[in-house]
Amino acid sequence: MKREYLCEWILVFVVFIIVNIPVLALNNGLALTPPMGWLSWERFRCNVDCKKYPKDCISEELFIEMADRIVSDGFKDAGYEYINIDDCWMKQEREPDGRLEPDPERFPHGIKFLADYMHSKGLKLGIYQDFGTYTCMGYPGIVNYMEQDAKTFAEWGVDMLKLDGCHSHPKDMDKGYILMGNHLNHTGHRMVYSCSWPFYQLHIGMEPNYALISKHCNLWRNFDDIQDSWDSIQKIIDFYGDNQEVMAPHAGPGHWNDPDMIIIGNYGLSYDQAKAQMAVWAVLAAPLLMSNDLRNLHAEFKDILQNKGVIAVNQDPLGIQGKRIFKKERIEIWRKPITPIIHGYHSFALLFLNRRTDGTPTQVKTAANELGLLNPSGYHVVDLFDGGDYGIVAPADHLSVMVNPTGVTIVKATALK
Ligand SMILES: *[C@@H]1O[C@H](CO)[C@@H](O)[C@H](O)[C@H]1NC(C)=O
C-alpha cells in the first residue's frame, strides 16, 4: 500500500518536472529574414601563410578589408551585414585554462577588437567552431568546452556562430547541437546559430529531424560544401529540388535551409551562371553569405549581388522557401510565394532556369494558371534583372520568357487589386 502510494507520487513528480522544463526552443528573435553577409571559407579557405600571401591569408586584416568594402561599395546598403570568420582563426592549442584564443600573429588585436570594429561600422561579426574534437582543419573543437566557448564568444561580442561537424559522431548531434544552443542562450548575448547538423547526419545515412533542427538553429547546412563551379551549383539545385517536400516546410522567419555560400565574382561562374545562383538562392530563401574577394570584383558581378529586386525576393517577410514546379528537357520553373497578398492571392517570384548548353536562348511559354497565377484581377509581371515589363498577366493568359543557356530569367508577378 505504502509502496503503491510512493510510486504514484513519483509518477506525479516526474510529470511535474517534464511539463515544467523550460522550453529552450530557439526563440532568439534573430534571422527573421535570411542572414546576408560575407564568409571567408569558399574563397580564402585555410590560408594561414601571411608572409607569402599577406592579402589572402585568414587574418584580422582580411576581415577588416572586407568590412570596409561592404560599407564603401554599397553592400551594406543592399542588406549585407554579417562579416563571418570560418575555420583556421584559432591558435593550435587552447590556453591552459581551456580558453580559445585566435592566432596571435594573424589576429594581433584579438576577436573582441574585430567585433567592436564591425559594430562601429554598423556590421556584425560571425565566428566558427566545430561540434567535434577538432575543427575540419585540425584546430581545437568544442568537445568538453561548450559552455566555456559560448561564454567566450559572448564576451567578445560575436553575433553569429557557425558550428561545423567534423571529427564528431552525427548520432550525438540531436542532443549536442541543442545543448550548445542552450549554452549560447544562457550567455544572454544573442547570436545567430548556424548548424551543420543535418549535413553530417545525411552523410552517414541518417534522416535528420528537421522539425527539431528548425527549433534549435537559425540556419543549417544540408548538402556538400559549395565549390567554384557551375557543376557544384547544379548539384545543390538538384538536391534542393529533389528534397523540397522534406526540407522546405521547415524554412521560415528565424530558421532557414542553407545551400551554402554565394560564389559570384570568383573564377568559376559566367555572367549568366552568376545570375542563376543569385536568383535560385533568392527563391530558396537562402542565407546570402558571399565568399569572394570584394577588393577585386567586376562591376557586373557587383550589380548582380546588389540587385534590389532579387534581394527583396530573398528577404520577403513571409520567409517561404520556393519550390521547383516544373522540370523537363533541362528547363526548370521555380516559384516562391511572396508579398503582397491580395484577396488571399499571393504574389510570386517565378524563376525560369535553362540548364541546356545549346548556345542560344530558349523560349519558355507557360499558361499563367499552370504557374499558379489564379488571381482574377491578374498580376503585373516584371523582369527582375533587366526591368523588362510583361504588362498585366491574367489567369487565362500565357507568359512567354526567353532564357539564356546555363542561365535564368526571374520575374516578379505582383497580384493586383
Ligand atoms: C533564450 O531563450 C528564451 C526562450 O526561448 C528567449 O526568450 C530568449 O530571447 C533567448 N535569449 C537569447 C540570448 O538567445
Explain this structure:
- The chain is α/β, with parallel strands linked by helices and about 425 residues long.
- It has 2 domains: about 20-315, Aldolase class I (TIM Barrel), CATH 3.20.20; about 325-415, Sandwich (Immunoglobulin-like).
- It is about 30% helix and about 20% strand.
- It is built from 14 helices and 16 strands.
- The strands form 3 sheets. It has an 8-stranded parallel beta sheet.
- α3 (about 60-70) packs parallel to α5 (about 110-120), α6 (about 145-155) packs across α7 (about 175-185) and α12 runs parallel beside α13 (about 300-305).
- The radius of gyration is 23 Å and the shape is globular.
- The termini are far apart.
- The relative contact order is 0.11.
- Mean pLDDT is about 95; it is low at about 1-25.
- It binds 2-acetamido-2-deoxy-beta-D-glucopyranose.
- 2-acetamido-2-deoxy-beta-D-glucopyranose (NAG) binds near residues 29, 185 and 188.
- 2-acetamido-2-deoxy-beta-D-glucopyranose binds near residues 25 and 190.
List the helices and strands and how they pair.
Elements: H1 2-20, E1 36-39, H2 41-44, H3 60-72, H4 75-78, E2 82-84, H5 110-120, E3 124-130, H6 146-156, E4 160-164, H7 173-186, E5 192-195, H8 197-203, H9 210-216, E6 219-221, H10 230-242, H11 244-247, E7 256-258, H12 271-283, E8 288-290, H13 299-305, H14 308-314, E9 323-328, E10 331-342, E11 345-354, E12 362-367, E13 379-383, E14 389-393, E15 398-403, E16 407-415
Parallel strand pairs: 1-2, 1-8, 2-3, 3-4, 4-5, 5-6, 6-7
Antiparallel strand pairs: 9-10, 10-11, 11-16, 12-15, 13-14, 13-16
Helix pairs in contact: 3-5, 6-7, 12-13, 12-14
The protein binds 2-acetamido-2-deoxy-beta-D-glucopyranose.
2-acetamido-2-deoxy-beta-D-glucopyranose is lined by residues 24-25, 27-29, 185, 188-190.
